[in-house]
Design goal:
The structure holds two protein chains of two kinds.
Chain A (H helix, E strand, L loop, with lengths): L23 E3 L3 E2 L2 E2 L2 E2 H22 L7 H20 L8 H17 L12 H23 L17 H13 L1 H32 L3 H42 L3
Antiparallel strand pairs in A: 1-4, 2-3
Chain B lengths: L8 H133 L6 H12 L2
């Protein structure tokens, strides 16, 4: 579990990857070959889930016809995801609303909490985003076969194509389908990791130049950092949206099978 | 890159599953149905209110239509009454005028006849007076007892009758 801590301290030698290290907070026993230790990653997952639960529970307590602030925020989150599903899948997609809503809120809160100093970004780990993407992929595939049976395989056979090209295109369609969890997870992971690494590097410039007594020179990276922080907040929201809407689009394809 | 350290994968996957499943259960069982119910109730209420407002508006429009119809009817009736009245008044006036005309013509005729009688009488008186004067003149010029017939003839000739 222990990560490398070399160069983690002091001046220009800040390691921008140090923030992604996972270290155990409580060592827990290995169950069925899985290490269940409570790590900093686990901590921030639990924090995210707790915050979402507290926020949404408080928001759902208000049942007045004219909503208060908190109730309105909860209802806005609700209708945002509900509209996304209705526009992309249709009303039958509302069966998946709890899952898609949980997915959106979990990724959004993990991304946003990662913007706090000294926090840990759960979604900056490929294994986490891949697990989420694989869950979506499995769900989409199961829904496709459940609705269309073996006919779901027609998804890989484009219509109106010369027979000669068909084998090639089927292979291409199959590969593009199978690489979906990879692209879905790498997109989120890459955005989160790259943004946080960049912030750390600029932060390292500011600290390094400042501690070397070159405070006027430190202003430029500081200003850039402020701007990038705003950009990162935008990306944190946007990537949660992108992940969710791609889930909707994949589900729509599995349900309606129209290209 | 710490992301590629497989020794952390087990813990991350385990806690991801625990936290995500917890979140899913809490949201799908406790939170989302309540928010959905509140929003559905609101939308029902709004739809109901809108329908009610629409019904009231239709009612108001019907009332306005009825009012306008009644107004138009009253106007037509008033017009008819006015025309009848005018015709009646005109007939009455014409009748009275004719009556008055007849009366006036009668009176004028009576006055004419009276005038003619008076003139006749006056003329007759004049003739008698002339005859007397002629008698007196003839007496004074020495003609005794003038011939009545010749005097009459002379007077007739003088008066052009």
């Amino acid at each position: 579990m222990a990560g490398k801590t070399t160069n983690a301290e002091g001046g220009a030698g800040i390691d921008p990857m140090h923030q992604f290290e996972v270290h155990s907070l409580f060592d827990l026993p290995t169950i069925a070959g899985i290490d269940t230790s409570f790590t900093n990653s686990s901590l921030w997952m639990v924090i995210a889930v707790s915050l979402i639960t507290v926020f949404m529970t408080a928001a759902s307590r208000g049942t007045s016809l004219v909503p208060g602030r908190l109730q309105l925020m909860g209802e806005m989150a609700y209708s945002f995801v509900a509209n996304m599903i209705k526009e992309n899948i249709g009303t039958e997609g509302m069966r998946f609303f709890p899952f898609i809503f949980s997915l959106f809120m979990f990724i959004l809160f993990c991304n946003m909490l990662g913007m706090l100093p000294y926090s840990f970004t759960v979604t900056s780990h490929l294994i986490v985003t891949f697990a989420l993407a694989a869950t979506v992929f499995t769900l989409v595939t199961l829904v496709g076969f459940a609705r269309h049976g073996i006919g779901f395989l027609k998804l890989f056979v484009p219509s109106g194509i010369p027979v000669v090209l068909l084998p090639l295109l089927v292979v291409i369609e199959l590969i593009s389908y199978l690489t979906r969890p990879v692209s879905l997870s790498v997109r989120l992971f890459g955005n989160m990791m790259a943004g946080h690494t960049m912030l750390k590097i600029f932060g390292g410039f500011v600290v390094g130049l400042g501690s070397a007594g070159l405070i006027p020179l430190a202003i430029a990276p500081f200003a850039l950092m402020v701007a990038f922080t705003g950009l990162e907040l935008l990306i944190a929201g946007l990537q949660a949206y992108v992940f969710t809407i791609l889930t909707c689009i994949y589900l729509n394809e599995a349900i309606h099978m129209d290209h | 890159m710490p992301q590629l350290d497989p020794s952390t994968f087990g813990s991350q996957l385990f806690w991801l599953a625990v936290s995500f499943v917890t979140l899913y259960v809490v949201l799908s069982v406790l939170v989302l149905p309540r928010i959905g119910a509140t929003m559905a109730k609101r939308s029902d209420q709004l739809d109901g209110d809108l329908a009610e407002a629409e019904a009231l508006r239709a009612k108001a429009e019907a009332a306005l239509e009825a009012y306008e119809e009644a107004l138009a009817q009253a106007r037509t009736k008033a017009l008819v009454v006015a025309q009848t009245m005018r015709a009646e008044v005109q007939a009455e006036t014409a009748r009275q005028k004719a009556e008055l005309d007849a009366k006036l013509a009668e009176e004028a005729a009576a006055a004419d006849s009276r005038l003619a009688a008076t003139r006749e009488a006056a003329l007759a008186g004049l003739r008698d007076a002339a005859k007397e004067i002629i008698g007196d003149v003839m007496v004074s010029i020495g003609v005794d007892q003038a011939d009545d017939k010749s005097v009459d003839a002379a007077l007739d000739a003088a008066s052009g009758r």
